[in-house]
Amino acid sequence: MKKRDVFFSLAVLMMSGALIAGCAGEGMMDKKMMGKKKMMKGGEDPAVTARKKLMRGIGADMKRLRTAMKQGSGWVVQEQVRQAAGDMYKKASKIKKAFQKNTLAGKTTSTTAIWKDKGKFNLIADGLAANAAVLAQIHYKGGPAAIKKAVGLIGRQCGACHKSFRKKKKR
Ligand code: HEC
């Protein structure tokens, strides 16, 4: 491409950008009139949306663990625990990165404490990942008692982090 062509395509891009921005602006106005909740969703920082999704996934894995435990013992339970714990490990390893951006833009229960004490936050996140990894390994040893103990430990880590870094009530 020649320099002039590049300049031209840039100008076209900018113009279409302005058009899209204009349409989005109108959309925002509609949402404003439709109520606060919708507007918040529209104005939510994608980082907030993403970290909530990650957390909900971790919550779903926790549910899978509890459901598996209720079924008692045996290799089916062990396999379910191994899979859920493995999935939780993968997600927990992403917590630190998901909360890298210091933002409360949108519907969030996070508090600024996260970025004031990122060291502690990251430590608990690492702890959860480590415990989930251990649980994925010990599933075949010790039976239901060992599983229960490991899930209990994991639950304490959810609680510890939420207590220090989340609002008590949802906005
Ligand atoms: C290192 C800190 C940390 C750990 C560990 C942690 N959480 Fe969270 N969790 C958060 C924060 C912060 C939020 C608030 C996210 C937001 O609204 O921006 C959250 C939000 C949630 C939510 C609500 C998501 C939403 O859609 O609003 C669920 C469910 C959840 N966590 C489940 C869990 C479970 C289950 C565990 C343990 C297996 C866990 N979390 C471990 C920090 C953590």
Molecular structure report:
This protein has 171 residues and is mainly alpha-helical. The chain has two domains: 3-37; 45-165, Four Helix Bundle (Hemerythrin (Met), subunit A). The protein contains eight helices and no strands. The chain has helices at 3-34, 36-42, 46-70, 75-92, 95-98, 113-116, 118-138, 143-165. It is elongated, with a radius of gyration of 22 Å. 18% of the residues are buried. The model is unreliable at 10-39 (pLDDT under 50).
Specify the CATH architecture of the largest domain: Up-down Bundle
Profile the largest sheet. Answer: none
CATH topology of the largest domain: Four Helix Bundle (Hemerythrin (Met), subunit A)
Rg, please?
Answer: 22 Å
Q: Which CATH class of the largest domain?
A: Mainly Alpha
Number of E strands: 0
Percent of residues in β-strands: under 5%
Helix content: over 70%
Could you give the order of the helices and strands? HHHHHHHH
N- to C-terminal separation? 52 Å
**How many separate helices?**
8
- The residue ranges in which pLDDT falls below 50 over 5 or more consecutive positions are 10-39
Round the mean pLDDT to the nearest integer and report it: 83
The shape, in one word, is elongated
Ions, cofactors and other bound molecules: heme C
- Structure class: mainly alpha
Summary tags:
single chain, 171 residues, mainly alpha, Four Helix Bundle (Hemerythrin (Met), subunit A), elongated, binds heme C
